[in-house]
Design brief:
alpha+beta, 9-stranded antiparallel β-sheet, two-stranded antiparallel ribbon, about 40% strand
């Protein structure tokens, strides 16, 4: 199918790309090196509450190993940094893929050139879409049944959908409260996290192509979820 370049109103409230990695350097050293490289472009620094947890627990708890410790902010962009993770998020107003992708490549190249990462473990691209005051299942081609009964009200569904060398983790909720960058939003949610699952390691020379392909997979799934008539009601531009 031909996918729209944009729809209006745009439902995207947050887009984020994350890289998890190994390094031979201590966690605080990693933060200091990345911070010094980006402090002029991301001037606002915040410490995250995880730093109140003792380091021995943070480093041994598998749920905390890849959690960020600091955020650097610049306008609608947030760079998050942890001992084994960094991510870049476009929050509030979505800049569009071409602009966001350009920012991703700029930030990633500068981190790559620091030569602090020995191996990348995971690359994931996530888009969170909110549809206020509506039930997205009524506008979707995804149907959920128990025997003959169609479920549409208060459905919260999470499934993994493999697609070649990627896995799309889809969460759809018909009635949700979502904290998006400190703002509570109510409505239906389509949340897609597309991660690379290929047999080869995620290597930096391949990363630009992997990121573009991840975006294509995410976008294809998003529009395949929606009914054609609903897409046409969103003022699509091709």
């Amino acid at each position: 199918m031909t996918l729209p370049k944009k729809i209006s109103p745009c439902p995207i409230v947050e887009s984020l790309i994350e890289v998890r990695f190994d390094s031979e350097l201590p966690g605080e050293a990693i933060f200091g090196i990345i911070y010094n490289e980006h402090k002029n472009d991301f001037p606002k620094l915040d410490k995250l509450p995880i730093l109140q947890i003792p380091e021995a627990i943070r480093s041994s708890d598998k749920n905390l190993i890849y959690a960020p410790h600091y955020t650097l902010r610049s306008g609608n962009y947030i760079l998050q940094i942890g001992p084994q993770v960094f991510s870049l998020a476009n929050v509030h107003e979505y800049a569009g893929w071409d602009t966001f992708y350009g920012q991703i490549k700029n930030v990633f190249k500068r981190i790559i050139d620091l030569k602090i990462i020995t191996e990348t473990k995971r690359l994931g691209l996530r888009y969170i879409n909110v549809f206020p005051e509506m039930n997205i299942f009524e506008k979707s081609d995804l149907k959920v049944f128990i025997k003959e009964d169609l479920l549409v009200n208060r459905v919260n569904l999470t499934i993994d959908l493999p697609s070649n060398e990627f896995i799309n983790t889809l969460r759809m909720a018909s009635d949700a409260n979502l904290d998006a960058s400190g703002k509570i939003l109510m409505g239906s949610v389509i949340d897609i996290d597309t991660s690379f699952s290929g047999s080869k390691p995620v290597l930096f020379p391949d990363m630009e192509e992997i990121i573009q392909n991840a975006h294509d997979k995410e976008k294809e799934l998003f529009f395949n979820l929606l009914r054609d008539d609903y897409i046409e009601s969103l003022n699509p531009e091709y």
